[in-house]
């Protein structure tokens, strides 16, 4: 039997380097409403880079910085954005 990937864990195409540390995977958790402050749902649904830069550091493990988000490979940003957007759907739609 093969091991299933964690549904909210994204394997990065271009790992993030922080000094000696290399981040290859990021796990997102569902945000609480307060963690969406400073952005708009419309911007988040549209995968706005600035909006994602505010929210992803609040819900990622390991914790990303806003700078990390701005430096992501575009393909990785889209993967993280799509995973985040899935949290906005009602349970029966996911």
Structure characteristics:
94 residues; alpha+beta; 3-stranded antiparallel sheet; 4 helices
Write up this protein.
It comes from Paraburkholderia diazotrophica. This is Phage tail assembly chaperone protein, E, or 41 or 14. Pfam families: Phage_TAC_7. The protein has helices at residues 41-45, 49-59, 66-71, 74-86; strands at 9-18, 21-28, 60-61. The radius of gyration is 13 Å and the shape is globular. Mean pLDDT is 90; it is low at 1-5. The protein has four helices and three strands, in the order ββααβαα. Strands 1-2-3 form a three-stranded antiparallel beta sheet. 37% of the residues lie in helices and 21% in strands. The protein has a domain at 30-93. With 94 residues, it is an alpha+beta fold.
Unreliable residue runs: 1-5
Q: Characterize the largest beta sheet: strand count, sense, and whether it forms a barrel.
A: 3 strands, antiparallel
Percent strand = 15-25%
Which percent bin holds the helix content? 25-40%
Order of helices and strands: EEHHEHH
Tell me the strand order in the biggest sheet. Answer: 1-2-3
Please tally the β strands and state the result: 3
- What structural category characterises the helix and strand content? alpha+beta
Question: Globular, elongated, flat, extended or rod-shaped: what is the shape?
Answer: globular
Give the distance, in angstroms, between the N- and C-terminal Cα atoms. Answer: 25 Å
* Average predicted local confidence, pLDDT: 90
Radius of gyration: 13 Å
Please work out how many helical segments DSSP would assign: 4
Protein name: Phage tail assembly chaperone protein, E, or 41 or 14
Pfam family, one: Phage_TAC_7
Organism: Paraburkholderia diazotrophica
């Amino acid at each position: 039997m093969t091991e299933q990937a964690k549904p909210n864990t994204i394997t990065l195409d271009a790992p993030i380097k922080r000094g000696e540390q290399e981040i290859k995977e990021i796990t997102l958790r569902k945000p609480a409403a307060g963690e969406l402050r400073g952005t708009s749902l419309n911007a988040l649904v549209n995968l706005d880079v600035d909006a994602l830069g505010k929210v992803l550091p609040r819900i990622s493990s390991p914790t990303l910085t806003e700078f990390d988000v701005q430096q992501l490979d575009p393909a990785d940003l889209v993967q993280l954005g799509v995973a985040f957007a899935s949290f906005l759907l009602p349970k029966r739609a996911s």
